[in-house]
């Protein structure tokens, strides 16, 4: 049994949203202030526990339109799927039939305003009829633990009757009566032995004597020191954890949260009275450094393969680290579109109409989604480029655009796909996906009909603005354009397109001189020997990246050198930005 769907209506920033979950791990991604905490509180409205009571909501939590409350109620609808016969028996009133004689369990919660103070009344019902109440047994069969961001987990690990440690040990004691009785026998023996020792006897006598003097024989009480307790339950309330020989208070916040999580999971797994187990973790990146994030996520990803397969986990995050490490199947993304919340799951995106190609592109995307590229899940505007050279230079080039675009101020995410791997990224930006403006800057790589002596097609070096025959790959990308996704290219490659302008060639030679002074001087002489613009562009481009002798200049290294120069020069010097790059920036910024 697992929570397959949650519908939230009229709650805080959420007018209405539907979340579809999977068994095991669910990672809910979204930027700050998108409503992730609202999702957490919606889950907690049903999945609470003794340590974390149901959240109290007020009229201020009602969704607002034009600063006014949208009605007087909030509603949450929960659907549980894959019930076994024990689940069906416990949730009988909540069952709603689906296909093949199977059932889902529907539970609904409504908060309604009851007076002018803003207090709200809670109503819980189940099944298809609103007059079917949720029973206490149902609620007790749904157990969840909520871990807050920046929580001081050490408090839950300290000696206390209701500590997580105490509950876990009492649960283990119920399942092992013989072991529990042997511990109680040992405790009583140990208590007697301790009380015979002089420091304890003297302490007890000192307190009793002082107490008798204060109150007299008629009013004084009989006092005894209790050292270790005399029962199993008393012992559990005194349990504490040490870490590497130190008290838990001296341990780091991140490690304490991981320890606490281990105790929580152990208790839930060992509790046979619970039919549904949930763990809600809000922003674990708040107290875990990247390496611990990786370790935690790897454990959570594999949780279904172990004994914990009956635990469903909900993790909210705005960390691109979590987004990059998780399987796409476990992700649920929250984005804002036209001032409204939109929810989508990458697992539901169609990457290709062919099932085989769909799976291939899906796995390809998972491989390419590192911590940098996973930024796209939180982006408002995206420019995809082929490689590191474009990635480095575009930041510097924006200074010289006609509209003085600033990538950071316009909140543009600039992402390299390492080659021509745009095909696995594009479906993410469809209307069913992220649905944000995307510009793809790629090379035209024009085709030539001329054949070399060795049978290969000749390379061509077009003039500025010349009509060209696009490569098959660029044609394919153009065929997949939409209102959101646009393809932009020049006449050949990024570097050649830059070299088509005289002003650019001066600074490009200067950048080349920083890393390859001999090559720079040789090319400068060759450039001075011709007056044709496209011939000069060809000389400079081929002299760096299509050299007939020696190794080619590294594009990334050259781009970094040119970027440094462009960032340092004053406004009196010019650098011409090709029109297609201007258009790419304009598309995402318009």
From TrEMBL:
CDD domains: TOPRIM_OLD (cd01026). Residues 1-49, 166-323 form the Endonuclease GajA/Old nuclease/RecF-like AAA domain. Signal peptide: none annotated. It holds the Pfam family AAA_15. Residues 377-445 form the OLD protein-like TOPRIM domain. It comes from the Bacteria. This is AAA family ATPase. It comes from Frischella japonica.
